[in-house]
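Onboarding guide, step 5: your first structure request.
Type a short instruction followed by the sequence, for example:

Predict the 3D structure of this protein.
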Amino acid sequence: MTKRLMKEALIDLMDQKPLEKITVTEICKIADVNRSTFYAYYEDISALMLEIENEVLEHVTIYADNFNDYSDKRMLEVFEEFFDYVRDNAKVFRVLIIRHDNRNFNRRMLDTVMEKYKMSLEHNGELPAKYTYIYSVSGVIGIMGEWIDSGFAISSKKLAKMVWQMCVKATRNG
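The system replies with structure tokens like these:
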């Protein structure tokens, strides 16, 4: 419970200002914990941020674990479930993908997806195939950011269909 409160406090603060401008004191005040409690769990704010990112990336892999089938129908379901998760956790994703200096997180997400789906290995490590997958995953991250920023202007189902069609075109023609 305490850790959850501190994570929520950090996300709330990051929705307002950059991570570098946030202090442990601010987190503790919002979470209603004292500094010694914060330091009992985390070495610093970066450690708290890393834990938040790791939890999100864990969820990314959960969707991949739930199937062994790369059929269009199943992939659409997986994308839709994931986009529902993104919408349900909009503030966290807005902070991680849009507001926060997201290069590191986006790279970690890309690496997580590539590793989980073994994308770079499917074509015997061919560089053009790997680039195609990087392009696809990076594109999904970018589209997700725009979807969040637009206030989820289309449904998860419609977004899943659009994204899957783009990924199929990129990977089958790449």
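Each response can be followed by summary notes, for example: The two ends are 47 Å apart (CA to CA).
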